[in-house]
Amino acid sequence: MTKNELRDKIKVLVQQTYKAKTIDLDKGGEVTLDAEKFPVLTKFPKLKEVIVDLLTDQYEVFMTNIEWVAPRPTTFRIVLGNDENFLLIYTERSWIAQVEGKKYYLLNLGEEEQAAQSISRLLAYGQKTETSTEASPEAGSEETGEEEVTASAEEETTA
Hints:
alpha+beta, 5 strands
């Protein structure tokens, strides 16, 4: 083997090694970060398909966590960005989405659409707001009691 042949082999090996690690966005290759953000999706690929059906392929924006809740029936808790959650349950026939206590069998297109609308309502609730409980409960009840008396007095005078 000559020096030039060795150089050529090294160049080819280097190109193969770095080719796997570089991402060319012009070629339209799929860039996925799912394995890092949601490791459950690598273990259960069908779960990703169901989530994409319900939340579109931009589901990462709307979800914060996927928890594996129960092994049988396989149940996942999907935690949304506003700390609301819903369940996805795998059965032999199809997936079941349990949103706000109602079950939607995702085998039926109509129920899948209803589940997507229910999840949309969950997302529309907005962020949880924390109420300040720094004041003592007694002081808060006294203030509300005075307001109620004033409101009832105003109603009596207008009637």
